Amino acid sequence: MTEQAYAKPIRILHSLLALSMLTQLAIGELMDVPEVAMPVVAETHWIAPAIAHEAHKHAVPGVAVEETLGFEVHELLGLFIAGLLLIRIMLAMTSLPGANWRHLVPWMFADGRKQLQGEIKAQVDGWKQAKLAAPEDGEAVARSVHGLIILAGIGMAITGTVLFFGWSQTVPQTDLIDMVAETHELIVVGLEALLVAHILAVILHQRQGHNIIARIKPTA
Q: pTM (2 decimals)?
């Protein structure tokens, strides 16, 4: 592998997605959601409500709940991220270095699975000691994490788009919209876990002198 394993369009998209996703997650946890209160009944949700769904200001049915600035920014930024992901999907159909689906989801291909299994077997003992292999020796693992983040982002964008068009500010949500909202929250939790793992790996790589940031920074 060369020092620069990713084409410049991929590096630029990586930076834009990283910045916008982290901002979006922060806004999503802090914003108030405009929602009409449901009648109080005893029920169990299969996903616990996120911070963003606690303590909103409800209105009575038939009266629209005013959108907060945080919610409006969340909607607009979500559409921006969806556009970035659409570009990333199109680039995944090209032969640009680091762009193709074979790089993002190696477990879907026989040669990718073989490489991934070999890397995991060779590196698992080091992981237990917080030691990571050099980037050129762990390409399939790193790309798998990137792929999972992209897939989680796509899932978040799809469910978020459904909520954008289906969310009601005048009446309680339908069961379908509630299910989509809970699925959206579940994907967000998974995405947050992946991002934490990704950022931690970058920090460990840098501490071990691998200079992994040079491989993905947009100005390289």
A: 0.79
